[in-house]
Amino acid sequence: MSAITLLQLRSWNENCYRVTACCCPGFGATYVNPCHPYGARAREEQTPAMLALNPLGELPVLKDGEQVLYGTQAILAHLARVYDPSGTWLPLDPAIFGGVMQWTLFSAAPLGCAVTGPAGGAVLADRVIFEVLKASSRPAFRIMDDHMTLRQMDGCEWFAGAGPTIADLALFPSFALSRDYGIDHDEFPALRRWIKRFRTVAGFLDHAGHT
Predict the structure, then answer these.
(1) Alpha helices in the chain (DSSP H)
(2) Is the CB of residue 69 less than 8 Å from the CB of residue 62?
(3) What distance in Å separates the CA atoms of residue 89 and residue 81, rounded to the nearest whole number?
């Protein structure tokens, strides 16, 4: 098994959190051993050395042996496919796989505003920024809550499949941390139940790095 290096921001960032949680040994399945995450100084991702790894100038970046990957969703899929032989986090069953990828990509597009807002240097003490983030992320959370309401009515506890997948991992940080800019989780009861359940997953890693 090749050594993996994770290049991520030292400061809080949802995309880095997603990949860090996925790399954590014991997170459901042991994906990576060893894993060496380290921080990057402010705007270091814009240096020529970093742009050679990711021309978009964004973190995280994953180095797995000779392979270099950027894009959170691509990294999650790679880690799950290569380092989870059980197929738990990225099921190959066609009936489940499509749903997993659909919701994983949802975290990058419709839900992207909830990620790029705080990560883009917004001062969360600014009431205007709070209101912009709430207005832009609430429709995505409503779509997620409606989906999970129907899933829970059918006895399903996760976004796709019978257990947690990279879809749940990709979606979790944006909603779990949305209280930071004033989202009332009581508005989304199905999501509130879902994140409570997600925190019980073996090896769960919170955004501060605690299990």
Answers:
(1) 14-23, 48-53, 72-83, 94-106, 112-119, 127-153, 166-176, 189-198
(2) yes
(3) 8
Q: Is CATH 1.20.1050.10 correct for 94-199?
A: yes
How many C-beta atoms surround the C-beta of residue 102 within 10 A? 12
Per-residue pLDDT reduced to its tens digit, 192-207: 999 999 988 856 655 5
188 within 8 A of 179, measured Cβ to Cβ = no
**Which residues face 69 on adjacent strands?**
62
pLDDT digits (tens, 9 = 90+) for 71-83: 888 988 988 888 8
Task: Please check whether residue 45 is in contact with residue 58, taking contact to mean a CB–CB distance below 8 angstroms.
Answer: yes
What is the dotted CATH code of the domain comprising 4-83?
Answer: 3.40.30.10
H helical segments located in 67-165: 72-83, 94-106, 112-119, 127-153
- Residue 117: Cβ within 10 Å count: 21
